[in-house]
Amino acid sequence: QVQLVESGGGLVQPGGSLRLSCAASGIIFSISNMAWYRQAPGKQRELVAAILGGGTTNYANSVKGRFAISRENAKETVYLQMNSLQPEDTAVYYCPYRGAYWGQGTQVTVSS
User: Fold this and answer.
1) Residue 27, Cβ density class (10 Å: 0-12 exposed, 13-18 middle, ≥19 buried)
2) C-alpha angle 27/31/34, rounded to 5°?
3) Which of 14, 23, 75, 104 has the highest local Cβ count within 10 Å?
4) DSSP, res 73
5) How far is CA 13 from the centre of its chain?
6) Per residue in 87-112, is it b (16+ CB within 10 Å) or e — as a string?
7) What are the residues whose beta carbons fall under 8 Å from the beta carbon of 88, sequence distance 6 or more?
8) Is 8 buried (19+), middle (13-18) or exposed (0-12) by CB count in 10 A?
9) Rg (CA), the chain
């Protein structure tokens, strides 16, 4: 059974940082491509960052230079380090598997 559990969200001031975690189970994590998506109120879900099984990463233009995706295969966990957060980063963040399995997400709110 595939399970994805996102955590690490919260309320942060503009310019602050957060580190999100996504613990996966029920998949062959070490060879799986993983990604972070986000959905803000009234907006479409968008891809934020992705990391291939081999470690190659790519990012949405809006987060390049501010966010960093990484993975720890031994813990079957993918991370999203978010720096210089801005109000427009406010959203629920998800780490789906193959676009078919979604966790509950973790809320990130950037506000003063």
Assistant:
1) middle
2) 75
3) 23
4) G
5) 19
6) eebbbbbbbbbeeeeebebbebebee
7) 40, 62, 110
8) middle
9) 13
Residue carrying the six token digits 């990391």: 51
Asked if 92 and 39 count as a contact pair (C-beta separation under 8 A), the reply is: yes
- For position 30, what pLDDT does the model report? 84
Checking if the pLDDT of 31 tops 90, the result is no
Structure tokens at 3: 């399970």
As a whole number, mean pLDDT of residues 58-68 equals 97
CA 107 from centroid of its chain's CA atoms: 11
Can you state the percent helix, strand and coil of the chain, rounding each to 5? 10, 50, 45
